[in-house]
């Protein structure tokens, strides 16, 4: 077949982990999800692994994985999160790549990516090499094979980067058509100037490299890719298929490739149900043999380039000015804030470059005392990032160390490497992409910079933070005064050391029971002693624990005392442990005073014994902070609910009277009804079963009193309940009452018009229909009454879930 099609998805999220905790904290803007990774996973990454194909009536008749048919790359930092927090999706992606090897002549769909989305032309040579080495190593660890292609962040390219790709075995990359300068046929002398509109994107090209090697490049179809990302092609699968097929040149008698590249999040996150349009399109083309679905590596093997290309260096797909979007006020922005300036970009880049160069000097001065080849050690450090087990770290150190290390040596060696890791993470491209230096992406890269500064200070004793802040003052903000104010407001409060981890441990111990050894983010707490005394609502706890970093192995033995006043007021003293005797004396003094009810004296003693190192609820890490606040306010919430319930129930009669007279019901009564009805509806779906009569009554009341339903939370609660019920059903499919219960809920809830995400339930239903339905149908056909009832309920549930059997 001469017609070939390849669709590439660049799946990527910037690293969002708090650099001190190595975990993503709650992001309120992602509600009702914990964070944006979790939300986009639910809207895009997981749906693309179990995508629905519908029949002409809009009923689901197939569930497929898009990853088996498209070329794709996932950012390594995103895959790291996914492997831990969305393992089912991660495994489905890896499995899809394995299947694509069989489908596409031994060439997998997955390609690698430069590690943390650094703009490669703006990086120094060492960072470019490390980004490529880490990207390849991460890929090999997860996909169990070497990559053939590598995605360059923002497709930003220069010849030095391509030379490095070639040196590390990468065969091809993907670029935008406007990045081609001129082309010629191999063996010919004459070059031809090209533009993004005149370049023939249906074939691969060879780039000759300064080193004497070469690398292949695919230039995606710019118009089609733009229409997929920003147009309406994903409204219907037929639209996408027709556009791809219509791009073929009918007069061509040679083999050619129509291919597009776009952010993978286009399929489901940016365009809801975009993954379904993609699945339908690929199935339609393949099943009707309208073109050959392929991936880049397979096509390259069968049809190697016969044309050469010269590139426009320092160019990219998302900035018409080259790579200026990441170092200058070039005019590129999101377009959402007219009148704002991006004059902050250059000073921010300058500050980061200054810091990077200062950290290089520290690394070279210090690391030579620990590593045989310091930069080789940094390149190899990816093996530690991928496996932080003690045995693996010891193995790494044995390979790279100049001598046998003491415990202190190991800690310093690991800090040096972590300093360098954060120095690269601070160049993640999103920190320059958007409109203001106060954005969450900018704060994130400044946090990485701060963490690198902290490591440097711990290694050498002198802090560069103030000089860095002075340089940030030169970066103006559209919302705050400048980047230094952003740093003071958002970065400094996030800074953490082992003493603050100890404060987190002792404060949170008031609200949850810890074992003697407890994991706290990327730290381990080993408790040596802990005693707690209660008096009414107040609690005092005193103890000793060893806090150890799982990243650098640094530890700190601390003693603490924490006083909880019974509400959100908490006072915790934390200091370095001195001796058992001193701890015992302090504990006895504090507890005796507490037992006497002399709370002001307890506070004074804590301040004295802990030298003013007093922490509060404010110092808890964000997730635990919210958890504790919810616990503290639980009694308050109960009181509020009791008050509202009394108002509502005591005034239902007068509300009825107002309604009959067609007068507007007093707002306080409506507010009470709204609070109680919403609360009762949510509670109903926190249990396995529900009272149908009561649920109907609540739904009637929402209409009767014109109550506004918290549709976001309610939709999330009901979706979770349905998924949980379907999971029970998939494990015990003979239980006919489970589908009937789900049917009842969906029928009764219809008036609320909730937006329910039913795809997980649909997946489980589909699996049961494949594995269990036929047996039950045969029994029903033979006259078994219970099987008849089961089949009837199952088919009816399928109607509600929009699935055709």
Notes on the structure:
The model has no long low-confidence stretch (mean pLDDT 95). Helix 25 runs antiparallel to helix 26, helix 27 runs parallel beside helix 29 and helix 28 runs parallel beside helix 31. The two termini are 34 Å apart. This protein has 31 helices and 20 strands. The chain has 805 residues and is α/β, with parallel strands linked by helices. The strands form five sheets. Strands 1, 4, 5, 6, 12 and 13 form a six-stranded parallel sheet that branches. Strands 15-16-17-18-19-20 form a six-stranded antiparallel sheet, sandwiched between helices. Strands 7-11-10 form a three-stranded mixed sheet.
What is the structure about, briefly put?
The chain has 805 residues and is α/β, with parallel strands linked by helices.
Task: Supply database-style keywords.
805 residues, alpha/beta, six-stranded antiparallel sheet, 20 strands, 48% helix
């Amino acid at each position: 077949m001469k017609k070939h099609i390849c669709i590439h998805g660049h799946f990527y999220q910037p690293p969002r982990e708090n650099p001190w905790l190595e975990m993503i904290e709650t992001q309120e803007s992602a509600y009702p999800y914990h964070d944006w990774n979790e939300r986009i996973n639910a809207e895009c990454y997981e749906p693309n692994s179990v995508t629905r194909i519908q029949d002409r009536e809009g009923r689901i008749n197939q569930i497929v994985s898009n990853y088996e048919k498209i070329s794709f790359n996932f950012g390594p930092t995103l895959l790291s999160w996914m492997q831990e927090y969305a393992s089912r999706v991660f495994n489905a992606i890896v499995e899809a790549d394995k299947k694509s090897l069989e489908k596409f002549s031994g060439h997998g769909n997955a390609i690698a990516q430069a590690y943390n989305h650094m703009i490669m032309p703006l990086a120094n040579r060492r960072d470019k090499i490390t980004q490529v080495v880490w990207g390849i190593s991460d890929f090999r660890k997860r996909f169990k094979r070497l990559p053939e292609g590598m995605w360059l962040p923002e497709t930003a390219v220069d010849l030095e980067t391509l030379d490095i790709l070639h040196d590390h075995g990468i065969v091809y990359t993907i670029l935008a058509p406007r990045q081609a300068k001129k082309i010629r046929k191999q063996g010919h002398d004459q070059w031809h100037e090209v533009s993004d509109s005149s370049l023939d994107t249906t074939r691969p090209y060879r780039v000759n490299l300064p080193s004497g090697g070469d690398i292949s490049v695919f230039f995606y179809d710019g118009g089609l890719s733009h229409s997929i990302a920003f147009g309406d092609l994903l409204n219907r699968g037929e639209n996408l298929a027709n556009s791809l097929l219509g791009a073929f040149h009918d007069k061509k008698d040679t083999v050619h490739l129509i291919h597009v590249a776009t952010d993978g999040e286009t399929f489901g996150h940016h365009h809801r149900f975009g993954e379904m349009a993609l699945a339908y399109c690929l199935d339609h083309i393949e099943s009707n043999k309208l073109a050959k679905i392929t991936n880049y590596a397979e096509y390259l093997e069968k049809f190697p380039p016969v044309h050469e290309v010269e590139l426009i260096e320092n160019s990219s797909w998302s900035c018409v000015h080259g790579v200026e979007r990441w170092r200058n006020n070039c005019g590129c922005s999101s377009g959402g804030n007219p009148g704002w300036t991006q004059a902050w970009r250059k000073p921010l880049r300058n500050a980061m470059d200054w810091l990077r160069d200062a950290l290089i000097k520290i690394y070279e001065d210090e690391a030579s005392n620990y590593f045989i080849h310091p930069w080789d050690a940094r390149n190899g450090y990816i093996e530690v990032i991928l496996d932080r087990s003690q045995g693996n770290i010891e193995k790494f150190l044995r390979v790279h160390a100049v001598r046998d290390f003491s415990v202190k040596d190991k800690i310093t060696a690991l800090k040096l490497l972590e300093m360098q890791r954060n120095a690269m993470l601070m160049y993640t491209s999103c920190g320059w992409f958007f409109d203001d230096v106060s954005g969450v992406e900018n704060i994130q890269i400044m946090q990485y910079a701060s963490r690198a500064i902290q490591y440097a200070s711990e290694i050498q004793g002198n802090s560069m933070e103030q000089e860095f802040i002075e340089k940030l003052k030169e970066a103006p903000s559209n919302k705050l005064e400048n980047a230094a104010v952003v740093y003071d407001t958002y970065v400094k409060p996030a800074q953490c050391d082992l003493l603050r981890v100890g404060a987190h441990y002792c404060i949170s111990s008031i609200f949850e029971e810890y074992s003697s050894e407890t994991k706290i983010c990327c730290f381990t707490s080993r408790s040596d002693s802990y005693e707690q005394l209660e008096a009414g609502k107040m609690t005092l706890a005193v103890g000793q624990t060893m806090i150890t970093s799982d990243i650098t192995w640094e530890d700190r033995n601390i003693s603490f005392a924490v006083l909880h006043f019974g509400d959100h007021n908490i006072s915790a003293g934390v200091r370095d442990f001195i001796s058992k005797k001193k701890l015992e004396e302090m504990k006895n003094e504090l507890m005796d005073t507490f037992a006497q009810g002399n709370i002001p004296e307890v506070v004074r003693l804590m301040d004295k014994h802990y030298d003013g190192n007093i922490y509060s609820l404010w110092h808890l890490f964000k997730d635990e902070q919210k958890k504790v606040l919810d616990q503290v306010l639980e009694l308050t919430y109960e009181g509020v609910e009791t008050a509202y319930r009394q108002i509502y129930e005591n005034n239902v009669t007068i509300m009825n009277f107002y309604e009959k007279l067609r007068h507007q019901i007093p707002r306080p009564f409506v507010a009470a009804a709204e609070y109680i009805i919403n609360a009762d509806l949510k509670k109903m779906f926190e249990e396995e079963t529900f009272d149908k009569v009561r649920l109907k009554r609540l739904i009637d009341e929402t209409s009767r009193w014109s109550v506004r339903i918290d549709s976001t939370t309610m939709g999330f609660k009901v979706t979770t309940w349905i998924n949980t019920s379907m999971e029970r059903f998939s494990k015990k499919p003979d239980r006919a009452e489970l589908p009937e219960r789900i049917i009842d809920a969906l029928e009764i809830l219809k008036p609320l018009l909730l937006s329910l995400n039913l795809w997980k339930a649909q997946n489980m239903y589909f699996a049961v229909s494949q594995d269990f339905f036929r047996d039950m149908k045969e029994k029903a056909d033979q006259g078994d009454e219970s099987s008849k009832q089961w089949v009837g309920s199952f088919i009816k549930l399928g109607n509600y879930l929009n699935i055709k059997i």
